[in-house]
Write a structure and sequence with these properties.
It is a single chain. A hairpin with a 3-residue loop joins β3 (71-79) and β4 (83-89). The protein has a seven-stranded mixed beta sheet, sandwiched between helices. The chain is globular, with a radius of gyration of 15 Å. It has five helices and seven strands. α1 runs antiparallel to α2. The protein is α+β, with helices and mostly antiparallel strands.
Length: 163
């Protein structure tokens, strides 16, 4: 018989989480985005975790932590009432429903805060995930991070709509 995976949990962000979330952020970019971004782009993107602003962004947003057996394995943050700023899952648990659980929770929280829609600037790697959830592309963007250009797509979903 196959082994049953432990049920993931959700909890709020705590300031002591910054180092482990930075490690998840870095591992996710390094191991999951190689088909869509060059090594130089990945390196520039990962350097954001070394900046003290990384922890400040997590603390200023509504950030949720996904856990397995009490250990963080992913996180997502909601800026304001209607924008997903970050969604990162450790590569070891990628494809196991962690990102879905996090985005489900953010969509419920955003709706509870009165948001009619939710937007995200999705990386090329995450665009398909959000499209399957009913988010539609609004515009392509180019952002500069540490002298490297990275593309992403602003996507939007009307809350309460069935994907």
């Amino acid at each position: 018989m196959g082994q049953t995976l432990p049920k993931p949990g959700l909890r709020p962000f705590l300031p002591d989480d910054v180092p482990v979330l930075a490690a998840i952020f870095t591992a996710s970019i390094e191991q999951l985005t190689g088909d869509d971004y060059s090594e130089a782009q990945q390196q520039a993107w990962m350097e954001a975790a070394e900046d003290e602003e990384f922890g400040k962004r997590l603390a200023s947003d509504l950030t949720l932590i996904a856990t397995l057996e009490g250990s963080p394995v992913g996180f997502a943050s909601l800026r304001g009432t209607d924008h997903i700023r970050m969604l990162y899952v450790h590569p070891a648990v990628s494809g196991q429903g962690i990102a879905t659980m996090l985005v489900d929770a953010l969509e419920k929280l955003a709706g509870g805060r009165g948001a009619k829609s939710l937007s995200v600037d999705a990386s090329d790697t995450a665009e398909g995930f959000f499209a399957k959830r009913g988010y539609t592309a609004q515009q392509r963007n180019s952002v500069t991070i540490n002298d490297e250009w990275l593309a992403n797509t602003t996507m939007k979903k009307t809350l309460g709509a069935v994907p």
